[in-house]
Each structure stands twice: as C-alpha cells, then as structure tokens.
Write a structure and sequence with these properties.
By secondary structure, this protein is an alpha/beta fold. 40% of the residues lie in helices and 23% in strands. 43% of the residues are buried.
Length: 445
C-alpha cells in the first residue's frame, strides 16, 4: 500500500488536511491530537506498517488539526483547541463520507477523543485510547496527576529541546540507540511546529480536565497505558476506565509515548480484537529489498593485537560510521554482531554505494571489511527482523567475498544492467543451503 492522497476539508475559510486508506467495513480515525504531519509519516517504515495493519480491517481516516502539519493555522476566534479539533474532525468526516467512526486516540488525542465522544455520541462507535489522561495535573481529588511545577519544567524542556534527538529519546526511550530513527523523529517534530508552539500546546494540555465528561461517554471503550511511560501513568489510564461505563483497562509493557516502534503488535492486536472480535496477529509483510552483509576482515586477530579496551573503542567507531552511512544511503540496520552487519535497502545501487562508502570510511580506521549483496523478495516480520531465502543468499555471497571487495549476486548485476556500475564476473558457486549454482560478480572500482 502506497501513501494515500492528501486531501483537504473546508472549515469556514480554513483547510484541514486528511488522508483515507483501506476499504474495511468500519471507519477508524487515528489521532495523536495535535501531533500530525501526514505526508512525512509515510517515510518511516514503522509508522507505515502500523497504518497498513489498521487499514487491513478498517477504512482509516487521519487528519492534521489546524495549527499543525499541512493544515491552516488555528483561527483567532476565541475558540479553544478542543473546539477547533472537533470542528476539524466533523469536517473531515463529512468530506470522507463518514457518519460514525471508531477513534484510536493516542497521547493528548485521547482526551480530545473523550470529549468528542461525550458530545457526539451518535457519531462514535468505539474508543481506543493509548497513554491517555483525563487530567495531567494533580488535584485534591486527583492524586495521580503530575505536580504543576514538574509540568512547567517539562514545558521549558520542550521549548528548548523540541526537534532534537534529546527530546526524541525522552519521548520514545526504546529508540535511544537508534540514531537513524532519532534523526527522523527530530525532523518529524520540526515539521509539526516550532518549539514555542509546542511549549504552548503543553501548557494548554496541562490545563485540560475532561473528568466531568467521562460518565457521558457511551461508546465501548478500551484504555491502554504503557507501564513505564514517563508522559502518562498507569493510574491515569486506569482512572479513565473506572469512570467510563463498561470501559476496559489494559496495562502494557514498555515506555514509549508513541505506539509505532516498541512492540506495536501488542497494541494492534488489541485494537483489532476490540473492533472485530478476532485477532489474526501480526502478519509478515513482504517486499523487494537489497540485503547487505559486511564483516571486518581478520577481526579475531585484530582484537588479540589491540586488547579488549582498544578493540571495543574501535568497534564503537565502526558502529558510528555504519549508522552514519546507512542514514546517508537510506538503509535500515537489521542486525549487528559487533564485527558484522546486516542491513536492507529499497534499491541495490544504494546498497552498493553504501558498501563502497563503508570500505573507504572504515579503511581510514584500519578496519578492512568485505561485503556481500543480493536483491529479492524478503519477509518483513512483526518483530522488526527480516527473513527469507534472499537473506540466506546474501549471507552466502558475503562468505565468498575477499577483503576490500563488494561481491554481488548475478541478480543484482542483471537488475543494474545499463547503470554506471561495472561488474567483474567471479564464477558460479554452490551456496550452502541454497539450491543450484549461483553466479557472483565483484563491483568494479
């Protein structure tokens, strides 16, 4: 499924961006409240996969509220964020031909979804909330809220660090070591709004209190909260479930504020079960991809020569270079074993260019490597791993490569026939565990 067309709904003189994907029997709005940058989100494989899974059993509707992403700015008409958000959603539903929707409300989108469901009971068929709060701030009758001074400090932190990797680490701790994902999240945050506007949104959110509307919510409701999330606590999620008639609460493992990277199928399975009555489980996606394997030549000997501490420091530099080059050539790191790397790319020429660049960069560190590349159909698993025969062939091609060499299967050469790249034949080989004989080629320098 490719990225859907971005359309616009009209609210007075303003335009609200929205997208529709899937053709399921029910309409499902997924919202993170004010956080939305519709087009950009399709660049991140984890988000694209999350949305495709939802669209496998629903018609998914997404929108950018005014004041964020691709939509116009919020009007200066005296209305608050909730009023404008409600106007935006109603306009999008009308434009999409939807009369009733289930809403997946995440983060501050949860409180907005609760207010919408209470005010528009006939237009909400179900509510599914993740890391949501009815009130952020502590009160005499709400001991589970956060201290006001703590939220003020967080607002100051957001204004200073929003759009940086430091902020991204705080929001989604599971990605603390994933430099590519952190860079993308930082870019995504900057596309949403400025640090000042984000800080103002946090102030507005800290003043929101939707506890009074909870008894008026009639839609079947599932509340989910991650156990170690710093931005929304389990007691806050449980409070919502206790005050919405018939609501169910589930405590999930993890710490991420957003749902896309840390065990997303835990959430997706529950959403599907709640809406359809069945849970198919995370299904593997398949895609054409170039697989790249590299390893450091004579790593055992080098480690013995340098000693543990120096070798560990050199491997750290190796990983820094690796992540930098994968980012430049739009590769995704799948696995690393210290001296070996497995990554995938959408195109085989990018895999080759990345391997060549890695050769040069690591040679300057005194780390000669070899590389093997194959191109074919791979299985993209729910746990983030990649499998299939294409992966096995790529690993076997690497085993044939010599120091300083980028070795590719004939499949790669045939796909890139006519390109500027030059290939030198290296003969046909039997690859362990792979039927037949496989021709391999070295990329010319």
């Amino acid at each position: 499924m490719t990225a859907p067309e971005t359309r616009y709904a009209q609210v007075g003189d303003d335009r609200v961006a929205y997208q529709v994907l899937g053709e399921g029997p029910r309409d499902l709005v997924i919202t993170t409240g004010w956080w939305a940058a519709l087009d950009l989100e399709w660049e991140e494989p984890a988000i694209a996969r999350f949305l495709r899974r939802l669209a496998s059993f629903s018609r998914v509707i997404r929108f950018s509220p005014r004041g964020s992403g691709l939509s116009d700015q919020r009007p200066q008409d005296g209305g608050d964020a909730q009023q404008h958000w409600t106007q935006d959603l109603l306009a999008v539903m009308h434009a999409a031909g939807s009369h009733s929707v289930a809403i997946v409300g995440m983060n501050d989108g949860g409180s907005m979804a609760l207010q919408f469901a209470a005010a528009q009971p006939g237009q909400v068929s179900a509510l599914l909330l993740l890391n949501a709060t009815a009130r952020w701030v502590v009160a005499h009758d709400y001991p589970d809220g956060y201290p006001l001074e703590g939220l003020a400090g967080f607002s100051a932190f957001a204004q200073k660090h929003f759009g940086t990797e430091r902020f991204a680490r705080t929001q989604n701790p599971s990605l603390a070591q994933d430099e590519r994902a952190l860079r993308w999240q930082s870019k995504f945050a900057r596309a949403i709004g400025s640090p000042k506007s984000v800080a103002e949104n946090f102030v507005s959110q800290s003043q929101r209190d939707v506890r009074s509307v909870l008894p008026a919510v009639q839609a079947p409701t599932l509340v989910m909260t991650r156990r170690s999330c710093a931005w929304a606590s389990v007691p806050q999620g449980r409070y919502i479930a206790q005050h919405v008639a018939g609501a169910r609460f589930e405590e999930l493992p993890g710490a991420d504020y957003l749902p896309y990277w840390e065990a997303p199928d835990l959430i997706l399975d529950r959403v599907e079960q709640f809406l359809t009555g069945t849970r198919r489980g995370g299904e593997s996606d398949r895609a054409l991809a170039a697989v790249l394997f590299t390893d450091i030549v004579d790593s055992t000997r080098r480690a013995a020569e340098l000693g543990d501490a120096a070798w560990r420091a050199l491997l750290d530099r190796h990983e820094e270079v690796l992540r930098e080059q994968l980012g430049l050539f739009r590769g995704r790191l799948v696995d690393t074993a210290g001296d070996g790397v497995f990554a995938i790319f959408e195109r085989p020429d990018r895999a080759i260019e990345c391997a060549q660049s890695l050769h040069e960069a690591l040679a300057r560190l005194g780390l000669p490597i070899r590389a093997g590349i194959h191109f074919g159909d791979v299985e993209l698993r729910a746990d983030g791993q990649v499998g299939g025969m294409t992966v096995h062939i790529g690993a076997r091609v690497l085993a044939l490569a010599k120091s300083g060499e980028v070795l590719v299967s004939r499949t790669v050469r045939d796909v890139l026939l006519g390109s500027r790249l030059r290939f030198d034949e290296r003969g046909a080989y039997e690859l362990k565990g792979v039927p037949g004989r496989w021709e391999v080629c070295a990329v010319g320098v």
